[in-house]
Automatic annotation (TrEMBL):
<keyword id="KW-0479">Metal-binding</keyword>
<dbReference type="InterPro" id="IPR004360">
    <property type="entry name" value="Glyas_Fos-R_dOase_dom"/>
</dbReference>
<feature type="domain" description="VOC">
    <location>
        <begin position="8"/>
        <end position="123"/>
    </location>
</feature>
<dbReference type="InterPro" id="IPR029068">
    <property type="entry name" value="Glyas_Bleomycin-R_OHBP_Dase"/>
</dbReference>
<dbReference type="InterPro" id="IPR037523">
    <property type="entry name" value="VOC_core"/>
</dbReference>
<feature type="domain" description="VOC">
    <location>
        <begin position="141"/>
        <end position="259"/>
    </location>
</feature>
<dbReference type="Pfam" id="PF00903">
    <property type="entry name" value="Glyoxalase"/>
</dbReference>
<protein>
    <submittedName>
        <fullName>VOC family protein</fullName>
    </submittedName>
</protein>
<dbReference type="InterPro" id="IPR051785">
    <property type="entry name" value="MMCE/EMCE_epimerase"/>
</dbReference>
Amino acid sequence: MTERLITHLRHVDLAVPDYDKQLAFYTGTWGLRAEHTDTGLTFLAAEGSPEQYVVRLRRDADKRIDLIAFGAASDADVDALAARLARDGVRLVSEPGDLQTPGGGYGFRFFDNEGRTVEISASVAVRRHRPVEEGESIPVRLSHVVVNSADPEGTRAFYERHLGFALSDTLTHPRMGQMMWFMRVNAWHHSLAIARCPHPSLHHASFELRGLDEYMRGTGRVLRAGVEKIWGPGRHLAGNNTFSYFLDPSGNTMEYTTELEQVDEDTWHPHLYDFTRPEVADQWGTANAMNEFVAQRSFNDPDRGLFAAPPV
């Protein structure tokens, strides 16, 4: 087994053509805080998270994932991981060095097997944050990111072999075979999941709320704001987390969730779940059916940023 040097998920960075609409959505509706802003660039924090930011928005003509960022425990681990990837023939975008983003730190970037830019960093300054109070329906932290993949088996193998991710559970279909893989880097059931899709793209990003009441209040607030809901509210079987999926102004799927399962990594054995069983998709039975409409919206637009590092 590959030694795991990644500790956790830090942030997801998105490039969008409708930057102003996106910024208004994430700060005015979704509940994130704009902590740092430059021309056409905003770093958005979650009130309960020590991370400097959990989403970065960048103005661009193309809609794309700029990068997905993970943390490491030390600068030495960053160096070790960069050396391992280079030795294995993974294409580095940048060598380890000082980061110029909020909180500083030490890190590097590389392309994964399908061309997504991934950043690994350590020594980033902890953001001054606070406990989210009872009844506050705003994100506590970035829970997980799910990517669409045209080669999901290869993508799973890449993250297991090179980055030490472990498989938690798999969703299957009687005719289509295995369709989604939930991957972890710590006790949380998944920080990353990989979905089978005709093209690489963002499937969704998920934000943890304080508890069930806050999750439902948040779901209601976003609904009242007129944001299009595509699925939920409900509770998945894999991960045992709640879900409400909405579309941001660019058509990216964003999720409110809570109570994601934490597993005992020493004893956990991955399950194969047939997601055509209603209780697999939604244990509660309260969500609208998972159908072709929901699946198509989650396919998203093909990512235009593959094997093209973001300018910042």
